[in-house]
Write a structure and sequence with these properties.
The chain is an alpha+beta fold. About 20% of the residues lie in helices and about 30% in strands. It comes from Paenibacillus oceani.
Length: about 80
């Protein structure tokens, strides 16, 4: 945090299994996240709220399964 306060344009560069990642150090923890998943490291770039909301709005709605009429539950006892 101290580095970013003094030099907000400091680059963050690292490699993950042959892939080079470049970002601004100020973006780490805000829009770039590193996590461990099943013993491996993964790099996460979260989607914006607008993108997630659009996916939820555009998601097709599954029709509800019809319920059987009351009394026709076909229970064997």
């Amino acid at each position: 945090m101290r580095i970013v306060e003094q030099q907000p344009e400091v680059d963050l560069k690292f490699k993950l299994d042959g892939i080079t990642v470049r970002a601004k150090l100020a973006d780490y923890g805000e829009s770039v996240h590193v996590a461990e998943l099943n013993g491996r490291y993964v790099l996460l770039h979260p989607e914006s709220f607008e993108d997630v909301a659009r996916k939820l709005i555009d998601k097709p709605v599954r029709p509800a399964s019809p319920l059987p009429p009351a009394g026709d539950d076909e229970v064997p006892w």
